[in-house]
């Protein structure tokens, strides 16, 4: 049990749909992250939040919109996605925003865009 | 900018044989180094990490990695693998003063009975 949960675990959506991914951490951490994991590619950092403020946005298309209402919850709102956005989306948290901190990952949401 | 190279995308190993998974990094400053493991249908979890001090770090399930600054490497080793070690292994690096964690492309370890 990692202490980080993600829902849904699987999602199929059309290119015109709007959906949201949810992440919740039960570890009392101050930093949360969204990553995209595609086959044969390194994990891509998408967004970083520290104490509910976004501190990094790695040139992610605007069809991905993050939301962090409090330090325990993180959302990724999706709209008008493309087939190449199909991937495993991982949420992670760490105690603080520091390079030596261990990141704790959720099980991911497997997204398929048709 | 930091980067990580895992040259082996797949490594098949017989059960109870030794294994080494290679990781090389590139950075112009001091680094922290990590190995994460991803079991099927799960997220990543920390296996071990090097922050400072002894260059040899160990995990609770028999893996070890050695930080070699001159060769900019952080290879992962285990003297005798088990079926339960089947997973994908990711090497990652962060630079001191930079919170960003950069991952390699991963190495899929397959254990042959």
Number of strands of chain B: 12
Q: Distance between the terminal alpha carbons of chain B, to the nearest Å?
A: 41 Å
Structural category of chain A: mainly beta
Low-confidence stretches of chain A: none
The low-pLDDT segments of chain B are none
Q: Tell me the number of helical segments of chain A per DSSP (H or I, 4 or more residues long).
A: 0
Oligomer: heterodimer
Q: Could you spell the SSE succession of chain A in H and E letters?
A: EEEEEEEEEEE
Question: Percent helix among the residues of chain B?
Answer: under 10%
Tell the overall outline of chain A. Answer: globular
**Biggest chain pair contact, residues each?**
A-B, 25 and 27 residues
Keywords:
A: 114 residues, 11 strands, B: 113 residues, 4-stranded antiparallel beta sheet
What do you see in this structure?
The complex is a heterodimer of chains A (114) and B (113). In chain A, 0% of the residues lie in helices and 56% in strands. In chain A, the strands form 2 sheets. In chain A, strands 2, 4, 5, 6, 9, 10 and 11 form a 7-stranded mixed β-sheet that branches. The model of chain A has no long low-confidence stretch (mean pLDDT 92). Chain A is mostly beta strands. Chain B is an all-beta fold and 113 residues long. Chain B is 0% helix and 53% strand. Chain B has strands at residues 3-5, 10-14, 19-21, 24-26, 31-38, 44-50, 56-58, 64-68, 73-78, 87-95, 102-103, 107-112. In chain B, the strands form 3 sheets. In chain B, strands 2, 5, 6, 10, 11 and 12 form a 6-stranded mixed β-sheet that branches. A 4-stranded antiparallel β-sheet of chain B has the order 3-9-8-7, with no helix packed on it. In chain B, strand 8 (64-68) and strand 9 (73-78) form a beta hairpin. The radius of gyration of chain B is 14 Å and the shape is globular. The relative contact order of chain B is 0.34. The mean pLDDT of chain B is 94. Chains A and B meet through strand 10 of A and strand 5, strand 6, strand 10 and strand 11 of B.
């Amino acid at each position: 049990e990692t202490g980080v949960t993600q829902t849904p675990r699987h999602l199929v959506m059309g290119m015109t749909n709007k959906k949201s991914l949810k992440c919740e951490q039960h570890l009392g951490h101050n930093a949360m992250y969204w990553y995209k994991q595609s086959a044969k590619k390194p994990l891509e950092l998408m967004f970083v939040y520290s104490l509910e403020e976004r501190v990094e946005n790695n040139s992610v298309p605007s069809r991905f919109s993050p939301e962090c209402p409090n330090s325990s919850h993180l959302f990724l709102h999706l709209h008008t996605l493309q087939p190449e956005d199909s991937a495993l989306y991982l949420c992670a948290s760490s105690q603080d925003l520091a390079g030596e901190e261990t990141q704790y990952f959720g099980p991911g949401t497997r997204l398929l865009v048709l | 900018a930091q980067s990580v190279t895992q040259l082996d995308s797949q490594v098949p190993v017989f059960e109870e044989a030794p294994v080494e998974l290679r990781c090389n990094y590139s950075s112009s400053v001091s680094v922290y180094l990590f190995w994460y493991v991803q079991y099927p249908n799960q997220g990543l979890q920390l296996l071990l990490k090097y922050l400072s001090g002894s260059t040899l770090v160990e995990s609770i399930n028999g893996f070890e990695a050695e930080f070699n600054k001159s060769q900019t490497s952080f290879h992962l080793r285990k003297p005798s693998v088990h079926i339960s070690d089947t997973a994908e292994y990711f090497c990652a690096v962060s630079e001191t003063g930079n919170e960003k964690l950069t991952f390699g492309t991963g190495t899929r370890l397959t254990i042959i009975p």
